[in-house]
Amino acid sequence: xxxxxxxxxxxxxxxxxxxxxxxxxxxxxxxxxxxxxxxxxxxxxxxxxxxxxxxxxxxxxxxxxxxxxxxxxxxxxxxxxxxxxxxxxxxxxxxxxxxxxxxxxxxxxxxxxxxxxxxxxxxxxxxxxxxxxxxxxxxxxxxxxxxxxxxxxxxxxxxxxxxxxxxxxxxxxxxxxxxxxxxxxxxxxxxxxxxxxxxxxxxxxxxxxxxxxxxxxxxxxxxxxxxxxxxxxxxxxxxxxxxxxxxxxxxxxxxxxxxxxxxxxxxxxxxxxxxxxxxxxxxxxxxxxxxx
Length: 292
Fold this sequence. Notes:
It is built from nine helices and 13 strands. The chain has helices at 2-16, 18-28, 30-34, 100-103, 112-131, 152-164, 178-185, 188-191, 222-225; strands at residues 49-55, 79-85, 88-96, 143-144, 172-176, 198-203, 206-211, 214-218, 234-238, 243-247, 252-257, 266-278, 286-290. α2 crosses α5. The strands form three sheets. Strands 4-13-9-5-8-7-6 form a seven-stranded mixed β-sheet. Strands 3, 10, 11 and 12 form a four-stranded antiparallel β-sheet that branches.
């Protein structure tokens, strides 16, 4: 009887939980939802390598009609390619005394069990991406320190640095810890519509503040605070192409008996395979802001 129920539970979890897991994972976590997630290849198992390619812009040429414009010089198509190994396994698990508790939640999209398993993987993935943050320290440095008050003047300075670094203006983001975010919120010129302030897209459940070309969002995660090494004053500004995240299309769920461990009960395990890497010139496409 237990084996029949176990087979049914595994099948139902794959049907109801697995398809929505990756979409929710990428939507609810800020940094993972905003970095580039396009890649070439497939991830079948841990350790597989996939690729991200960017086409280099041709130099082109300007010629004069009646002089030399009847001909042109072509250029060979060239690309820059980043290889990314999906060598990280993000996983979470629970043990149960009986399958009944799990069976009662399988068909519920708001299942507490599914939600906390998702949250565990979210935190792992978010912390992993923040561990890869490595902005350029060469002149001009993209590591801004001793920022005690993240005000309009400081955001303007970050915008200038981003523009001087030639970030494409197709989407800039600024994630701030609650203290830095409150600094901006306390500035009337930053939040009042009288000064042209306006809200932008809904990202990760937040309405982004569109300021100085950035979509500004509050990030209260522990991952962001690892940049400052303290409990406050941390932020990151970036173009999405600064980092590439690759993930399996669906996670793996498995429910198994614990009898092989000489235990009564069952265990549910969810794991997702992925990896990440800075993109081409990625160190110049993000800026860290801390008070050190």
